[in-house]
Design brief:
With about 180 residues, the chain is α+β, with helices and mostly antiparallel strands. It is built from six helices and six strands.
Amino acid sequence: MKKYVLMLSLLISAASATAAECPELLKHMKRKLNSQETVNMCEAYKGKTILFVNTASKCGFTPQFEGLEKLYSEYKDDGFVVLGFPSNDFNQEHGDESKTAEVCELTYGVQFPMFEPLSVKGDNADPLYAKLAEKAGTAPKWNFYKYLVDKHGEVVESYGSFTKPDDKAFVNDIKTALAMD
């Protein structure tokens, strides 16, 4: 009986330690775009440098998908991931997820993870984006607003829509975040 109690106690401690290690920002389950599959953000992205981007497939900034994919492709083996979240908060996203997925995958060759459409600003902001805005001190002002998050789940910086994925200062920020312990 003592062995059982000790083993149970160890399991509970291990589970608590694992849960405590997950940054607050990643304590979310999100559904993949145009799919029923959900992703535990903590399990999938804990310890990675993450770029969160609210996207829209009918926006003047939509061609940024190409540059974001290039960044992802170039740095993914170093622990970097781009996470895209379509949003219609600025009235430039399809109402049909399959059309959004088509723009991402077929038009721009997006391979980085794309998730279910969600609200990114105001009272209706998804809890993930509400937390990003709180930590950064600013909510997205338009589509393709970017939040760079370090390996510990802390917001390093946020970038407006006009910051292109190949902007030298932006890329240097990503490299610096990747190099941090």
